[in-house]
Amino acid sequence: MDNPIQLNQENLEAIGSRIPVPNYSRSADKSGIVHIGVGGFHRAHLAYYLHQLKNSGDASAWGICGIGLREGDANLHDIFKKQDHLYTLMVKHPDGNIEPEVIGSIVDFKMGTTDPEPVIVRMAHASTKIVSLTITEGGYNFNPTTGEFNFDNPDIQHELQHPDDPKTVYGFLTAALKRRRDAGLPAFTIMSCDNIEHNGDMARKMLLTFAEAQNPDLAQWIAKEVCFPNSMVDRITPVTTPADIETLAENYGVQDAWPVTCEPFLQWVVEDKFSNGRPAFEKVGVQFVPDVGPYEKMKLRLLNAGHSVLGLLGALHGHPTINACIEDELFKNYLRAFLDQEATPILGDIEGIDLEDYKDSLLERFANPNIKDSVSRICSESSAKLPKFLIATIHENLATGGSIKFATLVIAAWCYYSDKQVNQNGKPVEIIDAMQSKLHDGAKESATNPLAFIRLESLFGGLAKNERFEASYTSLLQELYQGVAIKKLMQGMISK
Ligand code: CS2
């Protein structure tokens, strides 16, 4: 299409003749929700739910103020400024069809890195009712094995000494909650939307531990006044590529510097525990339940673990995307065997869910050829993800005598590629991980001392001391170091 139109508030009407645009009025003071961590997932999930609700004429008083707490968020800040916080969500269907739509529920964005004060003021403002989080598994600042708060983090140490100069999510939350308490305002709800089992309980435990060290009186007030609903969130949201930006401009005539792409599937199951009100999300399909635990576990141990199984094995073999893995019959069968034999047995019955249907639908979602979700996105931050997604399942199966072989090969592959940093065709693999150098050191030593990698106890707990795991892991690792192809090892597991 000639002359793509620049996305911004002024051009919305013109853009509306090309793709759907918000039908509601937007203003920065409508920000009952303050959201920390405005990545693609938030824009495809919570912000989209709110957009739908507002489009239906509900929730007119609600909007989202995004907050960036990392230097890297400055790019989004600048783009949002130019685009009046508007962005396009491109839903990609398996048949190749793309549905782009302009989302307007984010009405403001503030960086906390340069000047924390406006962020604290926004969070402490009477109109703020919910602070929601997608700060990734790593952002909760706990030791993955013990689950305890990490006081060694220098930013946390700084915040304990300087409560008015927050750096992490915990520093900002306590600074804002203190002002609310002192002003006699009700607390906001803290709503975690991250892939962590009991994400609300975890956010609560970490915040209270931090607050207790910083200001014990405040900690008591938070414990009494703040609700932390647990939730299960789901929508596959790949990294935006330059090709997505081009497609939007060329095929739909919209110039957007940072659209977000996602699959059609969308789910949010959340506990109905809110300190200070909430939008009527049930009107747009959000499920409110008394206990989200079984849904969270199902999703983390099937979908997220399934992603990791394909991602790590696929990266080593040289498959670029999750759909390329599923197109490979061996990978598809391996994944199904892992889901059936290792993940399903630890889940038990989940009310209202047929696990066979759920697994069938996962395989279909992963197969969506239009999504092209890169294995490098899935493998990124494995050190924060795998303890929750996969290693927990190995521990549970070791305790019950269940199968562990499919998951064990994934850990061996992770070690091998953390050492070599190339796939089995000799091409470099992209490793993005906060623990990258520790992983590399442990993995490198594994060539001569096979248990070195899994002795990283903060990730693996006592796995290195478990004889059954150790025997199976060591022999697989040896085979990888001898140059046996990952597909041969996978085939061997399936036929056993
Ligand atoms: C993925 C998730 O990051 C990962 O490893 O498994 O981002 C996954 O795509 C989402 O949780 C889907 O809801």
What does this structure look like?
This protein is α/β, with parallel strands linked by helices. It contains 21 helices and 13 strands. The chain has helices at 12-15, 40-44, 46-55, 74-82, 116-124, 154-161, 169-183, 199-214, 216-225, 242-252, 293-317, 322-327, 329-343, 355-367, 375-379, 382-400, 405-420, 436-446, 457-460, 467-481, 486-495; strands at residues 5-6, 33-36, 64-68, 87-92, 98-103, 106-111, 130-133, 189-192, 231-234, 254-255, 260-262, 267-271, 287-289. The strands form 4 sheets. It has a 5-stranded parallel β-sheet, sandwiched between helices. A 3-stranded mixed β-sheet has the order 5-4-11, with helices on both faces. It has a 3-stranded mixed β-sheet with strand order 9-12-13, covered by helices on one side. Helix 11 (293-317) packs across helix 17 (405-420), helix 17 (405-420) packs across helix 18 and helix 17 (405-420) runs antiparallel to helix 21 (486-495). The longest helix is centred in the middle third of the chain and has 25 residues, at 293-317. 47% of the residues are buried. The mean pLDDT is 96. It binds D-mannonic acid. Residues 195, 234-236, 304, 307, 378, 385 line the site of D-mannonic acid (CS2).
